[in-house]
Design a protein that fits this description.
The protein is of the alpha/beta class. The chain has two domains: about 130 residues, Leucine Dehydrogenase, chain A, domain 1 (Rossmann fold, 3-Layer(aba) Sandwich), CATH 3.40.50; about 140 residues, Rossmann fold (3-Layer(aba) Sandwich), CATH 3.40.50.720. The protein is about 40% helix and about 20% strand. Strands 2-1-3-5-6-4 form a six-stranded mixed beta sheet, with helices on both faces. Strands 9-8-7-10-11-12 form a six-stranded parallel beta sheet, sandwiched between helices. The radius of gyration is 19 Å and the shape is globular. The N terminus is likely disordered. Bound molecules: 2'-monophosphoadenosine-5'-diphosphate. 2'-monophosphoadenosine-5'-diphosphate (ATR) binds next to helix 6.
Length: about 280
Amino acid sequence: MHDSRETFVNHAFVVGHPIRHSRSPLIHGYWLDQLGIAGSYTRQDVAPQAFPAFIAALRDKHPKFVGGNVTIPHKEAAFRLADRPDALSEELGASNTLWVEDGLIHATNTDGRGFVANLDEHAPGWERADRAVVLGAGGASRAVLQALGDRGLAEIHVVNRTVARARELADRFGARIHAHGMDALAEVMQGAGLFVNTTSLGMAGEAAPELDFSGLASGAIVTDIVYVPLKTPFLQQAEQQGFATVDGLGMLLHQAVPGFEKWFGRRPQVDAALRQRIIDDMEH
Ligand code: ATR
C-alpha cells in the first residue's frame, strides 16, 4: 500500500488504433481535476498485432498502471486476453474496461450501462416503452440489446441491412428480440416507444436515409449512439417530426463512470460542465 497521497500517482489509459480522436482523456482528466486526485489518463495507440504484448505488460506495470479503456479495434481481443472477464463481457464477447487486481487483468463492458444511464438522465421513464426498435446489428447494437433486455423491455425489434447478423443477435439475446431486414423497418416502427440508431449511418460526412418517424407511439423517444455530429440526421428528422430525442454524447460520458471508479476509487458525476467541455472540443 502507498501511504502518501501526494506521491501516489495512478495511471490509466485508453487503448485503440487509431486513437487520436478519443475524447476519453478529456473526460477522465476533468474528473481527476474536479476530485483533486493525483492521477493521469493517456491515449495509447497500439496496432492489433502489438495488443497481446500490451496486455501482458500491464500485469507487470501494476500498480503504476491501474487499468484503462479499450476501444476499436481491440474490444474482442481485450475480452479474450483478460484473465478475469466478467459475465457481461462473456455475454457480449467484448470488453471496454480493464483493471488490474492481485496481478490479474479483470474486464467488463460498460457500453450498455452507459446507454441506459444516458436515457435515464435525459428521458426518465423511457423503459415503459412497450416496444423498441434498434437499427443495426454490430458490436454497439449487441451492448444496447443486452441492456434493453436487462431492463425488461417486452418487445425489441432489431433491424439490419444484413438480416443474418440481426438473427444472430436475436438468437443470442433471447425470445423477446425479433430480427428483420431493412424492408420491415416502417412496419416495426408502428407504435414503438423507443427508436435507437446504432449504425454509422449519418455519422460526420455520411448520408443517412430519410426516415418517417410518424408511426411511433406518441411520446416516443429517438436516440442515437453516434455523437459526431451531436444532432445526427436521424435526430434532426425525429425532432422535426415532433419527437423527443436523446443524443449519444451522454452514453460516452456515462460509460466512463465505472472505469474511473475502479481505477481511482471515487464515483465521478456526469455534469453539464463536462458535457459542455466535450462539445467545445468537438467544435474546435
Ligand atoms: P459497431 O461495432 O460500431 O456497431 P459494426 O460492427 O461495423 O460497428 O456495425 C455497423 C452497423 O452499421 C451494422 O449494423 C451495419 O450493417 P451490416 O451489418 O449490414 O453491415 C450498419 N451499416 C453500416 N453502413 C450501413 C449502410 N450504408 N446501410 C445500412 N446499414 C449500415
